Amino acid sequence: MLRLHTLSLRRGPRVLIRDADITIHPGWRVGLTGANGTGKSSLFALLLGELAPDQGDCMLPPDWVIAHVAQEVAGSDRSALDYVMDGDGELRRLQAALARAEAAGEGTLVGELHARLDAIDAWTAPSRAGRLLHGLGFQPGDESRPMATFSGGWRMRLNLGRALMCRSDLLLLDEPTNHLDLEAVLWLEQWLIAYSGTLLLISHDRDFLDRVVTHVAHVEQAHLRLYTGNYSAFELARAEALAQQQSLHERQQRDIAHMTQFVARFRAKASKARQAQSRLKALERMTQVAAVHAASPFRFAFRPPRRLPDPLLQLDHVAGGYGADPVIQGVNVSLHPGARLGLLGPNGAGKSTLIRILAGELSPLSGQRESSPDLAVGYFAQHQLEQLDPQASPLLHMQRLDERAREQELRDFLGGFGFVGDQALAPVAPFSGGEKARLVLALLVWQRPNLLLLDEPTNHLDMDMRHALEQALQEFTGAVVLVSHDRHMLRSVCDDFWLVAEGRVTPFEGDLDDYRDWLAARDRQPGEGAEGEEGAVHSAAARKARKRDEAALRRQLKPLRDQVTRLEREHSQLEQARQSLDQALADPAIYEASARTQLQTLLGRQADLARQLAATEAAWLEASEALEAAEAAAR
Description:
The protein is of the alpha/beta class. The chain folds into four domains: 2-235, 3-Layer(aba) Sandwich (Rossmann fold), CATH 3.40.50; 236-285; 313-522, Rossmann fold, CATH 3.40.50; 563-634. It contains 20 helices and 18 strands. The longest helix has 46 residues, at 540-585.
């Protein structure tokens, strides 16, 4: 097992983790969470032996094999398949020893090595590596390509495949989904669930964490605490702990105020001096319960667009690609204000190509792209992070964008994206990927677009920033087209989905669970299943008929699913309003005579919210029951 005993880690004078004392048992899958910069990656470096603890101990079984994903790799002529197979270090050592033994004619040793290779199932290693490459999105034929021919993002996928190939006891994954599309994320999710070793996973993708982890280790204010359950269970447990801490803090503050008033009133009176002194000593001995500081450091909203033409943009029989052969064709799209569209589709099917055509960065090979004269596009893509001026500060980037804006106004705006104090004036060059992504988003938001095109905007963003972005997108009055592997973001933002597949762009009549089923059906081999009558079930005609029936069922159920989703969103907004109101009513000042009118207003609002919540819950229950009944009838 992995044990951290009174462990502390520092980065210079700053304490990252203080007095951590946790035990992680074999087979646990632990999500390591916390805001960027809290020490999660430093903890990985400690486990890999790259850092030493400043205090305490980190204890691991000496025979454990640790696998992790290298962050950088130089290009080479080694094939993708060989590179991934190199992740199994024992396999490569035995193969090298076998080659030496055969060359030396040591027959006995050759037999022993063959037995050991049999024991680790060495003969299936190429097929296992091939399945890893396929799951991570590589196409047939890619396994023989030299590494040097792949881009940086694809090399990171190769590094991930190499780590998964290792028959490890402990697997360390730091944001493994950042360079994956949704299809590969769904595959990786299933692979990790079946992993038999111990997993430590850093991720800001809550759906991914929810489905993979059995425990959560959360870093906050230099404290590392272990929770049992998935991410949703952790959020609930943490919310309850924070509420209890805040209640204790408020009660203690009332006790302190009461004691302080007593001391101030009676300290000078001889008859009360002993009691006053006793209270002073009690105040000195009292362990202070800190107030809760769980608020997100990010706060921003999209400013209303200057104009909202309708339609914003239309594509008429458009074909798009990067050469003579189009990637997508026959695309007919009309974007209107208020649209919330998510793009789904396998890797390489043309999602980014479509986004670039919508953005005007790529001209159609044929067909027409017609945009309103008042169209204002806000386009976010990963390559824009590299186009930032490394020597310029966030403030200078903003000033170049809007020379007439006041400096204080720009600094206040940047503060909503986490650039406060000196960081707003620091050069961009040493910024992390998350900080650069936040700056690109800030530049985009400031320009008041009426059409947002977001291609994987959540890469490198932590939970707080993702939540702030979700809230801002929900309130945005223009249109949104989103490509993301973050299912929580897709569910929270998108009302409809388009499927980009087989060269076409078509409405997808279903939700993300239906899309997962679509991927599974697409990957199912035609010959799967028994022969005879069972084989007829898997015939091309049967599959086509089944797909027709599934599409019809999705169309039939979509209104009910949309209604359930809408009611869930309304309930969440009402619940947030109720919590804010409860906080206002918890303020003792509201019960003073001078605030009577305000109190009556708040109490009236509280009663109104209670009625709305009850009505929404009843409607949600009714819609959910109707949906379940419809799904059961369809089975």
